[in-house]
């Protein structure tokens, strides 16, 4: 049986007030069909030689490692984020397409 403890671990229960805990548990039946182990899923898809399209919405200068600190996001939003965020090995990245927007400041 799924529960907040089985999904999030026992430490989480001390951080959630009892009334919120019960409300969150009531969402499990509706949400659990939508939850997937993405690293395992990506591994299975790539093993089956299926194509994967990954989209990143942030600019490179917002990348946690290569961006202009302190104006960065909390993750890797350059192409390396595919490896760190989804668990896709670099050897499986065949093509990268970059889209650039130019703005004029007058």
Overview of this structure, please?
The protein is mainly alpha-helical and 106 residues long. Helices cover 37% and strands 0% of the residues. The N and C termini lie far apart (61 Å).
Through-space gap between termini: 61 Å
Structural class: mainly alpha
The low-confidence parts are none
Average pLDDT reading: 80
Discrete helix count: 5
What shape does the CA trace take? extended
Order of helices and strands: HHHHH
Quote the beta fraction: under 5%
Helix content bin: 25-40%
The number of E-state strands comes to 0
- Rounded to an integer in angstroms, the radius of gyration calculated over CA atoms is 19 Å
Largest sheet: none
Break the fold down into its secondary structure elements and pairings.
Elements: H1 4-8, H2 10-13, H3 18-31, H4 38-47, H5 81-86
Attribute tags:
37% helix; mainly alpha; single chain; 106 residues; 5 helices
Describe this structure in a few short sentences.
It is built from 5 helices and no strands.
